[in-house]
Amino acid sequence: MWRNNNQYQGANYNHPNVASNLVQAFAITSDPQFPWTDNTDAGRPEDDGTKKRRSEELIRAQYRDINNYMNSLPSNVNGNVIINGDMTAFGHGTEWSKINNLIQTLNRPYYYGLGNHDIENNFSNCYNNGCFKNSLQNLIQHVRSRPVPISFDYNVSGPYSWGYREHKGSFAYTLNLGAICFIQLQHNPTMNKTADPEFWASLNDKYTIVPNFNWVENQLRMARDNGKIIIVNVHVKGNISGDYTRLLQNYGVTAVFSGHFHTSLGTNGSVGNIPAFISGSASQSTYLILEQYTDRLAIYTVRNNNWKARQLVGTIPISTQLPIFSGRYKIITNLNNNSVVDMNPNNFNVHLWEDRNQLNAQWDFNYNQSAQAYVIRNASNSNRVLAWNAPNPAIDRNVFATPLVSGYDEHLWIIERGSNGLIFRNRKNPNLVLDVQDEHTANGTNIKVHQLHPATSGSRRAQEFHLRKMN
Prior knowledge:
Layout: H1 11-14, E1 22-29, H2 38-42, H3 48-72, E2 78-84, H4 93-102, E3 110-113, H5 116-119, H6 130-144, E4 150-152, E5 155-157, E6 166-169, E7 173-177, E8 180-184, E9 193-195, E10 206-209, H7 213-225, E11 229-233, H8 242-250, E12 255-258, E13 265-271, E14 274-279, E15 287-293, E16 296-302, E17 311-317, E18 327-333, E19 339-343, E20 350-354, E21 363-368, E22 373-378, E23 381-388, E24 399-403, E25 413-417, E26 422-426, E27 432-436, E28 447-451, E29 465-469
């Protein structure tokens, strides 16, 4: 759920330095599209030399304003830049050389995608499909050089006869920054194009873009199972087909950001029931700011490269609710991302144990619609469910695996998004959550229920988990 609001919202919205609950911030941009200017947008004539000079000036001006915004953030707030496609006007090598130079103006980490000018308009319109290949090769180098781990749907095989290799994938990638998972779908997630090798050309490799619906679904599932806020980036919103729209809705995507239409800025309808936003262009001196607070996402428009005059156009509450799911999972503690919630097969006590793919550390999740909570059965013994052992609820806190008893709320769990993972609230007393005792990770560490710690407490990590789907 979101609301439009173009009015001044007070200091906490309009000045990050006094927003005490600001978690992280992003400049979301698109279409630097060197060499392109406002005159190009309007169809006004401009000689090539002037166009290149003015395009560079417009891009530098936008990036300077983004730097000024980033420099205003408190020292404990991370900032990043997202660029949703059309890095170049046609994918020429000289254009890529220039934009690669200009983008280094940014003083925060940046992550870009490709647009129609990079990989569609130029297809079969350059010798050896060199412009198309230039764009993909630059993207590959960009993703591989980023400062955080990225899941990239790309593979290279070969060399084959005459020494060429094949670069193949959807070229989509997933980026986790704090509690937010960004999925970059590039220009069009359904694109299917192949640029064949030319053995006498400098770029003689084969490049193939193919749709990969299953890869996207797997990324969405992992993000949901880790309790992430999911944001999808794409160059053209209209390229998200009905199948992808349903997929994004099913996994609880929070927002979609796109570019392409240079003179459009701000709210941009929706993708199914998911709010959408569009980020303008360097040629129009416009972009978006996304700020994550502890309880909401705030989206602002920036015009005339003046972030101080930004306008709030959307607020999305950060919901703790997750889409309903089912299946077999491991429950992994955030304390070390390796130890799992495990059932002792001898006495059925529940404890922490290192992950050895043991069946007694795998759990079958089924949603009880009437109780609005999950029954979590142990995979090694389906008669045993994860439960709070509460003969005396005032003092007992141990967790064990026991036969399911209808009407026993202590056998049911409400699963919510936490700060950096999932929280398991017991339905009998939702103030009590699954907890690793004393934050230890040694094999045999007891699992219990405990009052939820504040998000700022170091002990909170012992109460947040993520799920790993079993095939």
